[in-house]
Write a structure and sequence with these properties.
Number of domains: 1
Largest sheet: 5 strands, parallel
Strand order of the largest sheet: 2-1-3-4-5
Distance between the termini: 17 Å
CATH class: Alpha Beta
Shape: globular
């Protein structure tokens, strides 16, 4: 069985390290991008099983990245999870309307984070 591939798009090095460490412990293969346009390239070339996408990125923000991924046939069906500090009431619904498959608010709860990733991969 192949290792499940997760693309983490996060510009904060501390969050990137936390996500990578947690996911690596569960034996997921982690791909990392710190900015949007590179994330789109990486998604097209590597075809990850899931993308964890920060919304506040320098340059091309997470909403633009998600839109770019959804507009290409080769990346259209990849699960995209918004991982963001935007934790206002109703934000989750807004992200789902904008084409995301899920939403995780920061700061993350390690166990819930891993459980959510597993749930999305099992769908």
């Amino acid at each position: 069985m192949h290792k499940r591939k997760i693309l983490i798009v996060e510009d904060n090095p501390i969050n990137m390290e936390l996500f990578t460490d947690l996911l690596s412990l569960r034996n997921y293969e982690c791909l990392c991008a710190t900015e949007g346009s590179y994330a789109v390239e990486l998604a097209r070339s590597e075809k990850p099983d899931i993308i964890l996408l920060d919304i506040q990125l320098p340059g091309m923000d997470g909403l633009c990245v998600a839109s770019a991924l959804r507009s290409h046939e080769e990346t259209r069906d990849i699960k995209i999870i918004a991982v963001t500090a935007y934790a206002m009431k109703g934000e989750r619904d807004i992200f789902l309307e904008k084409g995301f498959d899920g939403y995780i608010s920061k700061p993350i709860d390690n166990k819930n984070f891993l459980d959510m990733i597993k749930t999305f991969l099992d769908q």
